[in-house]
Design goal:
Blueprint: E1 3-8, H1 12-23, E2 28-34, H2 37-43, E3 51-54, E4 57-58, E5 61-62, H3 67-73, E6 78-83, H4 88-97, E7 99-104, H5 112-120, H6 128-137, H7 143-146, H8 157-167, H9 172-179, H10 183-197, H11 202-212
Helix pairs in contact: 8-10, 8-11, 9-10, 10-11
């Protein structure tokens, strides 16, 4: 299966390097590469991406501005931030906007292609410092704050089981093996969970599920 990659990065030298690396992989193809939000919006007509790698600091705005358009047009596209910004505000904003991964540029060089494959397989690549921020935010709130919200979404038993495994960090392939079901079945359940929670990414689903008291831990 060929992984179709879209790239949004304003550093021309770095963008060329990304393109070169993707083209060196037999299982990947560059669908489009853009250096600004305006270019990216025009490039959305070029086909359906499986993966979008996006920088945040762009000459005509934040990379977050493209998330909603991509998620609306291509719901199955996995979006990963690759940025120099690692502060809590940007991390939370990216997760809430639908990012499935968040890497700092200085941690990417040696694992670029492996990271893309991990993301496509259902993983959530995150730099260690970003993971620390997310772990801090995900610490259990007082019991009164995590009680189920009346009228909240009702998940089927299998959906609840998969959501809990996602929250524990398992990727789609690992969940498939643990439950004895196909990866495509896992993805189907995930998309149903997204619809019920009104979210667009694994990270956002976990945050929403914790807020609604839908997790078992």
């Amino acid at each position: 299966m060929t992984i179709h990659i879209a790239l949004l990065e304003d550093d021309a030298v770095l963008l060329d390097r990304y393109v070169e690396l993707v083209r060196s992989a037999s299982d990947m193809r560059v669908l489009w590469a853009a250096g600004s939000l305006a270019e990216a919006r025009r490039a959305l007509e070029s086909g359906t991406p499986d993966i979008l790698l996006v920088d945040l600091g762009l000459p005509d705005g934040s990379g977050l501005e493209i998330f909603a358009q991509v998620k609306k047009r291509f719901p199955a596209c996995e979006v990963m931030v690759v940025s120099v910004f690692g502060d809590e505000d940007n991390v939370v904003a990216a997760i809430q906007a639908g990012a499935s991964g968040y890497l700092l540029k200085d941690t990417l060089a040696d694992s670029f292609l492996a990271t893309i494959r991990e993301l496509h397989a259902g993983g959530s690549p995150i730099s260690p410092s970003i993971a620390r921020i997310l772990l801090t935010l995900a610490r259990p709130a007082p019991a009164s704050a995590t009680e189920s919200v009346p009228g909240g979404p009702e998940l089927a038993d299998r959906e609840s089981e998969i959501l809990n495994l996602v929250a524990k960090g398992f990727n789609f392939g690992e969940i498939s093996r643990l439950l004895g079901i196909s990866t495509n079945t896992v993805r189907t359940h995930i998309y149903r969970i997204y619809r019920k929670l009104s979210v667009h990414s694994r990270g956002e689903a976990v945050f929403e599920a914790r807020k609604l008291g839908l997790l078992d831990f």
